[in-house]
Design a protein that fits this description.
single chain, 3 helices, mainly alpha, 8% strand
Amino acid sequence: MAGALDLLRAAGLPERLVIDASHDNSGKDHRRQPLVAADVAAQLAAGQRGVVGIMLESFLEPGRQDLDPTRELEYGRSITDACLGWAQTADVLDDLATAVRARRATLRTPA
């Protein structure tokens, strides 16, 4: 993240990032997205201001399913990328919200 922020600064662009917790950051393993989000949350709580968003692969049910004309699709499970289920997504979002509140408290405290 620091390298990306350095590149933005050097290019004279706003130092703002949206982190993709899926794909390369999680090794395309949807079960690792909460680990990526936890790392981002720790940086937010420590006062990191360059992160303005996070993307999660999320759906109602965890994982993914293949399109198979011989069977019915399972409602709420992705047919594209593997996703977190809703319950785990809600936990991740709660942790991120807690981290943002901690960051805001840190930024309000005089140095």
